[in-house]
Write a structure and sequence with these properties.
Layout lengths: L1 H55 L3 E5 L6 H7 L1 H4 L8 H9 L4 E9 L3 E8 L2 E9 L2 E8 L4 E2 L3 H9 L6 E2 L17 H11 L9 E8 L5 E7 L5 E4 L5 H17 L3 E5 L5 E5 L4 E4 L6
Parallel strand pairs: 1-3, 7-8, 10-11
Antiparallel strand pairs: 2-3, 4-5, 5-6, 8-9, 9-10, 11-12, 12-13
């Protein structure tokens, strides 16, 4: 009797083990099938992401750094590229088109799958203004630190005209120089000097209506400054520094106090020489005194 029980128990244990093995194999097969399906779907999605979307969708452009220009106007500039698919979008062509805009100084373009294009634009910052002839009329243009001529948008031009720290420059031979071109090399140092003075906390150019450039022999030049609240003009050398402007203000106040009819003050040679309307010359050296 006991032998039958033991034998029956052994048969039951073997049969249960086989059943558990069958169930485990079924679960493993289900997991394998699920992993295979998931892998196929993942591969299909990657193919769509890396090949189908870039080939079928137009580029999605994100602009950064624009202030004077609108996204719409810049998009129209790169219209030949903006309507292309991602795979056909040429970063070099788009950059070349954007750099043809006189008010654009530099451009960085990066592409991101599947259809993103990021364009960062650095606009030129004006340091001075001047006038040029265009289509038989005189128009104002802006000059940046590097001496590049450019016209801003209507909004930026309005802001520039109301900016008292932006001096008007005249006398530079730029009548026939188109936008995007640089002023002659010898005048670019003046733009750097003006930019340096504009960065100071004191707005010196708010007291000056015009800076006139007088070309001299051998590539040199001198400057004539016209104060806003005075009819007296100031002659100075080609170096324009904060100390020169401070000296000019003091000389203007003192000389006008001495002679109310002063037409010109000359600060070029380390002394103060002034001329009245009667064309008589007066010179002061050292401290101002009667």
């Amino acid at each position: 009797m006991s032998d039958f029980v033991i034998q029956g128990f052994e048969n039951f244990e073997v049969h249960g083990t086989r059943k558990r093995k069958v169930v485990s194999e079924s679960k493993m097969n289900a997991v394998k099938i699920f992993a295979a399906i998931f892998g196929i779907l993942l591969i299909c999605e990657l193919c769509v992401y890396f090949f189908v979307v870039p080939c079928l969708d137009k580029v999605d452009i994100t602009w950064n750094g624009l202030s004077s220009y609108t996204k719409e106007s810049m998009t129209s500039v790169i219209a030949p590229c903006a309507n292309k698919k991602f795979m056909n979008f040429s970063s070099s062509e788009a950059k070349s088109l954007l750099l043809s805009v006189p008010g654009v100084e530099s451009v960085q373009i990066s592409k991101r799958f599947p259809n993103k294009v990021y364009i960062n634009v650095t606009e030129r910052k004006p340091v001075a203004m001047t006038f040029v002839s265009s289509n038989d009329r005189t128009v104002s243009v802006e000059i940046d630190r590097n001496g590049v001529l450019f016209s801003g948008t209507a909004n930026s031009s309005k802001i520039a005209n109301s900016d008292t720290s932006l001096p008007l420059i005249s006398g530079i031979p730029v009548e026939n120089i188109p936008e995007g071109m640089r002023i002659p090399q010898k005048y670019r140092a003046l733009m750097e000097q003006i930019d340096s003075i504009r960065s100071l906390s004191q707005n010196y150019f708010a007291a000056i209506s015009e800076i006139h450039v007088i070309p001299k022999e051998y590539g040199n030049y001198e400057l004539v400054l016209y104060p806003i609240h005075s009819r007296t003009r100031i002659l100075t050398g080609r170096q324009l520094k904060e100390e020169d402007l401070q000296y000019m203000m003091v000389a203007l106040d003192v000389v006008n106090a001495l002679e109310p009819d002063v037409e010109e003050i000359d600060l070029r040679y380390g002394s103060v020489t002034y001329r009245t309307k009667a064309t008589s010359l007066h010179q002061e050296t050292g401290e101002f005194r009667e």
